Structures are given as C-alpha cells and as structure tokens.
UniProtKB/TrEMBL annotation:
Domain Centromere/kinetochore protein zw10 C-terminal per the UniProt entry, residue ranges: 404-534
Gene Ontology cellular component annotations, sorted alphabetically: endoplasmic reticulum membrane; nucleus; RZZ complex; spindle
Gene: zw10
Record localization: Chromosome, Centromere, Kinetochore; Cytoplasm, Cytoskeleton, Spindle; Endoplasmic reticulum membrane
UniProt protein name: Centromere/kinetochore protein zw10 homolog
Family: Belongs to the ZW10 family.
Keyword tags: Acetylation, Cell cycle, Cell division, Centromere, Chromosome, Coiled coil, Cytoplasm, Cytoskeleton, Endoplasmic reticulum, ER-Golgi transport, Kinetochore, Membrane, Mitosis, Phosphoprotein, Protein transport, Transport
Predominant location category: nucleus
InterPro entries linked to this entry: Zw10/DSL1_C_sf (IPR046362), ZW10_C (IPR048343), ZW10_C_2 (IPR055148), Zw10_middle (IPR048344), Zw10_N (IPR009361)
C-alpha cells in the first residue's frame, strides 16, 4: 500500500522526501554508530588514565568527569531521537491527508464516468426509440449527479443543466410519440385534452355516450356520440360510471398497461386526472342524486355500492391508489349531504318567499288552524296517557273557545307558505339521525331569523310608502309570533337528543317578532300623523275666518283630513284585526282634533262670525269623524264601533265640549262648568275655560260675573 501511495504521490509531483520506513532504518543505524563511538571513547579514556588512578581522590575525580560526559551524551541522543520522531509524525499526517484527497478524487472520477456512460447510452436508446430504457438511464445519470452534490464541484451546475435538457428532450419525444399513436378527432376550436373533451362531457351531458371502433390498420377509435334528445337533466351515477369505465378500460388495455420505471402509465394518468374527475362526478352527478325526501334515503345504498364497484375497477386497472377517496366518502355521507341539501333548498325557497310580493293575502279567522302533521307517539306521550285521570274542575267557568286564537285579519300568502315550509322541514327532522335532525331544526330557526333580517330591509321603502303593506307586515309578524309559541312544543318529544331535552324551542324569538310588527306599523302611523299635521298647517291657525280666503283654506284642510282618514279606513278594512284597526284610526283622529283644539285655544279674540265658522268646521268633524271607523266590510256591523268612538279617541269628549262652547252663551258655559263638577270641567281647566270666555265675549259686567264663577 505504501509503495502504491508513493508511486501515486511521486507521479503527481507531491512527494520529494524518502518514505517513512527508510527514514526510520537510517535513524536506527545512526543511533548504533553513536553507541559504538561512546564505548570506544570510554575504553580509551580508561586506558589513558589508569596509571594515574592510584589514589582514591584522583580516581573519584575521573569518575565524576566520565559521568558528566555520559549524561551529556545521553541528552544529546534523546533530543535527536525526539526530533526525528516528530518529523516522522508530521510526514505521516501529510501522507494520510493526501491519500484521502486522492481517494475522493478517484470516487468523483468514478461518478463522472458513470454519468458519461449513462448519457451516452441514453442518447443511443433515444435514437432507437427505446423510451423506457432511456428513462431508466436518465434516472441513473440523475443518481450520479446527486452523489456529486457533496463535492461542490464547479462542474456540478453544468451537469444539472445537461440533465434537465435531456429530460425535456425525452418528454418532447414522448409527446411526439403520443401524438403519433393517439389521434383525437375534435372540432378545430376545441382543445385536445382527455379530461376536457371526453371524460367531463360524459359526466355532464346525459345525451352523450362512448363507442369503441376497432380498425385493423389505424388501431382503436374512441368516439363520442350524441343520443336522441333526452329530457333528463342529469345522468344517474350508474350511467356515468359505465361510460367512464368504458373509456378508461379501452385506454388501459391498448395503451397504458406498460411500466415506466416503477410506475405504470395508467397510474401516472390516474394521478393527473383523478382529483378533477372525482370533483366533477361529485358536483355534476352525485350532488343531484341526493334524495330530497328522507323516505328515499334507504334506497341510496344502491348508489354507494355502485360507487364502491367503480373505484374497485379503477384500482384493478391501477388508475387509483389507496383505500378510500373523496368520491366514496361523499357517497357514504349521504345523511349529512341530504341534510345540507335539504337545508340549502329550504333557505333558498324561504328567501324566495320573503322577497315575493306581500300584497297577495289570505284571510285568517279565529278558527283557522295550521295543518300540523300527526306524529308517532313518543315515550313521553305514552307515559302521560297511562297516568291520565279524569279531573273535574271546581270552577264551572271555562275559557272561551276563541281564547289564545288569532283575531280575524289578512296575512301575506307567502308567510303562510313560509310556515308550511317550516312545518315540513321539522317533519323531516322527526326520525332522522341526530346530526341530520340538528341541521334541519336549526335551519328552521334560520328561516325565521332570515325573515326578521331580510323582509324589513328588502321591503323598507314600500312599508313606509303604502299603509296597506305596513298593516300586512304587522299581521305577518303577529302570525309568526303566535305559532312560534307552540311550534317547538309540538315537535320536541319526537326529536332526538339534545333537541328533545328542551333545546327545540322557538319561544325566545316571539318578543322579537312582536316588536318588529309593532315598529313597522308605528312607523306607518307616524307617516300618516305627519301628513295630517301638514294638511292642518294650511288652515292659517284657524284665525280670522271671517276672511273668505282663510275660511276656504281652513275648510279645505278639514275636508282633506277627513278624506285621508276615510281612505286609511278603507285600506285597512278587514286587513287589520278590529281592535288594532280602531286603535290606529282613533289615534290618528285624535291627532287631528288635538291639533285643532290647540290652535283654537291659542286664539285671543274670536268674533261671533269666527265662532260660527269654527263651530261649523268642528261640527263637520264631529259628524264625519266617527264614520271613518269601518273595520268591517258590512256597513251595519260598523255602527257599534262608530258609536264607541270616544273609547278610541282620547280627546273626543273635549272636542265635543269645545264645539258646544263655541256656540253657547255665558250662562250655558257657566251651567256646563257647574262649580267644577259639570262635563266642561271634566275636559278643561278653569284657566282654559276663562281664556275661551275672554276670546269669545266682550269685556262686560256679565262676562266678569261669569269669570268669577269659573274656579
């Protein structure tokens, strides 16, 4: 080994000294020579001084001298030996380092040789169109380059570039060969991609089918055919799987059942297309095969089995690897998808109803009932039946049959349909799995929450512009609130846990709906109130009515007020519940007469002619005001509410007293005051009555006497 290293190092011009073994031998001989010289010198010295060593003192002196010389000689020998050993060690380290370096160089040269040979063989295989061999040789060259990465050779980047170039060259030749062997017959405007032009269309269009035509000279032809026009919007999963397997089986048997390295071409194609085609099958086929009714869920096991067989066939042809994929998981999670689809469809249907026109209405009467489904008896119901005993009420008085019933009114047809949609969705939840029931129940809650958020915003302008719609929206909200009170109770015992333990309730939403309906109608009342006050503002404060123009303006204002109230009465007739109708009309009429009373009470001087005009105007209101109360279509049934106008118009009695005072004399006013016990005293304060007397009558003794009696 030493001679080999020596030769290698000598040939490379790196070794100029003797090798280690010859150096050590030379040094050993030098030590032996030194020992011989020392012995000769000692013998000579001893013979020269022997005659003179007769006395002990002389002898001892010579012995000491010899000992010192011997000690000095020993030190000299040791120093020389240590120096030679150090030189030898240094030389050995240098030789070892050089050996390791040369070993690395030999290894690098070996990898370079392997790379060179592989690339030469690769080029040869490529020319002979042996593409599999070429791919294997390219892989061998890549491994050689990977082995050189730790050496940090400047040549490494050039080798990597060459490898990349040759790989692209191989891909180019493979593409050329693919285009030569696989011929697509497509319209010129379309792309030439298997996924885009054959697999996806077969999934998406039920009228398409595949045919395989075997031609002896030209090979196999895969063709898409359009069948007769079909009314089906989507293919069934079985149809889709059958069409796809025909294409993939044909490609596998004639083209893709060969290996490149450790992978088959079918496996490579599967890795490229599986994610896209599986998502296409899910969104264009399986999604539409999900049942829309819970009763159809049991039949869906057939689709699951068909999907399993489809994947099994793909695995046998090695298009697909692994145990389970997104496609099969989607099919197996049918309960979850059914609930999600049902919830999505329900929300879409609910939103459509909420954004539809509100003025299409249906009449609700106290005996109207929701068509609640008959549900199977729950354990709680059976327990109640077993414990049921006949109980006699001590109090013979019973609640009316109409207690807790909705009053007669009109609601939007869409809201009635919305409630029916909620009921059908809750029926689907009964008997479903826990997850499915939870999704469906909270979807129903979301329907009502969506109504709360969407309707006031979507119909905002119309609700303020049209009093008819505001009244309908008020009724809609009250209708929903009424049934939300008991809706959860009706279904709770038939739903799985935790819904049956008290979670299934809608009671918490009731106050919100009542408030929403009230706010909507109050906003409309404020609009109408503002319009009434605007009309009365044109009456010139009801002063100086002896002036013809002022009287005409005041008379016009009063007529407009009466007309507006009558119009509202007609619009809200049989729409609002009678009680709400009368309260609303009473509130608006009260606003008008309160404004008129206020303006008259502010007058400081009312002439007899002015008083007569004021009386005429006010008398018009007292006569026609009650006639605006027409909650029912049948005129004879409205008399009751017209006679009870004072119950709904807070200041009606005050207004009637004012009308009397405007035409009364001093004595009649004093008599109606009746020492603060008469009807006039019930409506006006003493200061207000005195103010009226001062405005209506001149300053006379009789007026003074009358004023003294008003206290």
């Amino acid at each position: 080994m030493a001679s080999f290293v020596t030769e290698v190092l000598a040939s490379s011009g790196k070794l100029e000294k003797e090798d280690l073994s010859s150096k050590i031998s030379k040094m050993s001989r030098k030590v032996e020579d030194t020992k011989d010289k020392v012995c000769d010198m000692m013998n000579k010295r001893y013979s020269d001084f022997l005659p003179s060593l007769q006395s002990s003192e002389t002898l001892m002196g010579h012995v000491d001298e010899v000992s010192k010389e011997m000690e000095g000689l020993k030190n000299c020998i040791e120093n020389e030996v240590q120096q030679n050993i150090h030189v030898a060690v240094v030389e050995y380290a240098k030789l070892k380092q050089q050996l390791e370096k040369n070993t690395d160089i030999i290894s690098i040269l070996g990898h370079l040789k392997d790379f060179h040979n592989a690339m030469e063989e690769f080029n040869k295989a490529l020319l002979e169109k042996k593409y599999v061999d070429a791919a294997n040789l390219l892989e061998k060259a890549r491994l050689s380059v990977d082995s050189l990465k730790s050496s940090q050779l400047p040549l490494l980047s050039a080798l990597s570039s060459e490898l990349t170039v040759q790989r692209e060259n191989l891909v180019y030749h493979l593409g050329d060969e693919w285009r030569r062997l696989v011929i697509w017959t497509l319209p010129s405007s379309k792309g030439q991609v298997l996924l885009k032009n054959m697999l996806k269309p077969l999934v998406m269009y039920p009228s398409l089918s595949t045919t395989v035509i075997e031609q002896q000279e030209e090979g196999i032809v895969l063709a898409l055919q359009c069948l007769e026009e079909t009314h089906k919007e989507r293919s069934t999963p079985a149809q889709v799987y059958s069409k796809l397997l025909l294409v993939l089986y044909t490609l596998h048997s004639h083209l893709l059942d060969i290996c490149i390295g450790d992978k088959k071409l079918s496996m490579i194609l599967g890795e490229l297309i599986w994610e896209d085609i599986s998502q296409c099958i899910i969104h264009e086929c399986l999604l539409y095969s999900i049942p829309t009714n819970s009763s159809q869920l049991e039949k869906y096991s057939t689709v699951i089995k068909e999907t399993e067989e489809f994947e099994k066939s793909l695995k046998e042809m090695e298009y697909l690897q692994g145990d389970s994929t997104d496609l099969l998981k989607y099919a197996r999670d049918v309960n979850c998808h059914f609930a999600s689809k049902k919830c999505r469809d329900v929300i879409v249907a609910a939103r459509t109803l909420m954004t539809s026109k509100m003025h299409n209405t249906v009449k609700i009467t106290p005996d109207s009932r929701l068509c609640l489904p008959k549900l199977p008896a729950s354990g709680l119901d059976k327990k109640k039946e077993n414990c049921k005993e006949e109980v006699t009420m001590e109090n013979s008085k019973q609640l009316s049959a109409w207690s807790l019933c909705l009053p007669a009114c009109r609601i939007s047809e869409s809201v009635q349909q919305l409630m029916e949609l909620a009921l059908s969705t809750l029926c689907e939840a009964v008997g479903s799995s826990t997850q499915c029931a939870l999704q469906l129940f909270f979807t129903v809650r979301n329907i009502f929450q969506l109504f709360y958020d969407v309707v006031p915003t979507y119909h905002k302008e119309n609700l303020l512009r049209f009093p008819h719609l505001a009244a309908i929206q008020h009724n809609n909200c009250m209708y929903l609130a009424h049934y939300l009170l008991t809706l959860g109770h009706h279904f709770r015992a038939h739903l799985p846990e935790p819904l049956c333990e008290g979670v299934a309730t809608f009671v918490d939403m009731v106050p919100g709906f009542r408030k929403l309906g009230a706010q909507c109608f109050l906003a409309q009342l404020n609009v109408q109130r503002a319009e009434l006050l605007e009309r009365l503002s044109t009456a010139h404060k009801f002063c100086n009515l002896d002036d013809g123009e002022n009287y005409i303006a005041a008379s016009k204002a009063v007529r407009q007020v009466i007309h507006q109230l009558k119009q509202l009465g007609t619009v809200w007739q049989e729409v609002l519940p009678v009680t709400i109708y009368c309260k609303a009309m009473g509130n608006l009429l009260n606003t008008a007469i309160a404004e008129i009373i206020s303006k008259i009470m502010m007058l400081e001087d009312i002439s007899s002619e002015d008083g007569e005009h004021l009386h005429t105007l006010c008398q018009t209101i007292t006569e026609e005001g009650p006639l605006v109360f027409t909650p029912l279509a049948e005129e004879n049934k409205n008399e009751k509410y017209q006679e009870e106008v004072s119950l709904y118009v807070k200041k009606w009695s005050m207004f009637k007293e004012l009308v009397i005072v405007l035409r009364a004399n001093l004595q009649e006013i004093v008599d109606r005051w009746a020492d603060a016990k008469g009807p006039l005293a019930m409506e006006f304060t003493s200061s207000e009555v005195k103010s009226l007397i001062r405005a209506l009558f001149q300053n006379t003794e009789r007026r003074a006497v009358a004023l003294t009696k008003i206290k």
